[in-house]
Amino acid sequence: MKFLLPALWLSCFAFQLKAQSYPPDLIGEWALVDWTATSPSGEVLNPFGDDPSGRLFYTGEGSVVLVLMRSDRPLFASDDPSERTLEEIEMAFHSFFTYTGRFEVNTNEALIEHEVELCSNPNWVGRTQTRYYELIGNTLVLTTPPIETTNTADEAVKHKLVWTKVH
Q1: Which residues contact 111 (CB under 8 A, 6 or more apart)?
Q2: Cys-Cys crosslink for 70: which of 7, 42, 48, 86, Cβ 3.0 to 4.6 Å?
Q3: Residue 11 domain-assigned?
């Protein structure tokens, strides 16, 4: 018991240091304002349409949750899950994206690394998603490194997501 209290105090102190190592303005809830993908040739795409919806949450304990969707997602014909058509399921999957996990911030390089633990895309589970970030007042801009996609003639596109602080 004699050593338990100092060990407990040290673990709480270490937790507080970890929580305080993030830029304070980053922690909180963010609403998606804009999402574009730009190819090396300059073609600009809107992956989830002209008015995408999304939320991004960063906690002081190092957790991240991201949810994105098309705002014009079509409804299913029925509320009964057993009556979904393959076309409806495919459209729902392609118009919604989410993941959660842990994050680390490298303030010197303006990088955030998302360690994906759960994801609507099973290929991302266990992988790190690197984002360049810029915090300007209540605006957070996240930019990806070039990502290859078949939608742009096999060119690597850079995604740019603009967020505004909710709280």
Answers
A1: 105, 130, 131, 132, 133
A2: 48
A3: no
Task: Please state the length of the chain.
Answer: 167
Dihedral (Cα; 114, 147, 34, 67), 10-degree rounding: -40
Residues 88-111: pLDDT tens digits? Answer: 999 999 999 999 999 999 999 999
Is 113 among the domain residues?
yes
How many angstroms separate the CA atoms of 60 and 105, rounded? 12
- Reported as type and span, the H/E element at residue 93 is helix 86-94
Q: Mean pLDDT score of the chain, rounded to an integer?
A: 88
| Mean pLDDT score, 105-119 | 96
Amino acid in position 28:
G
Total domain count for the chain?
Answer: 1
Query: By the 8 A CB rule, do 77 and 87 touch?
Result: no
Q: Domain containing 41 — which CATH number? A: 2.40.128
> Would 12 be classed as within a structural domain?
no
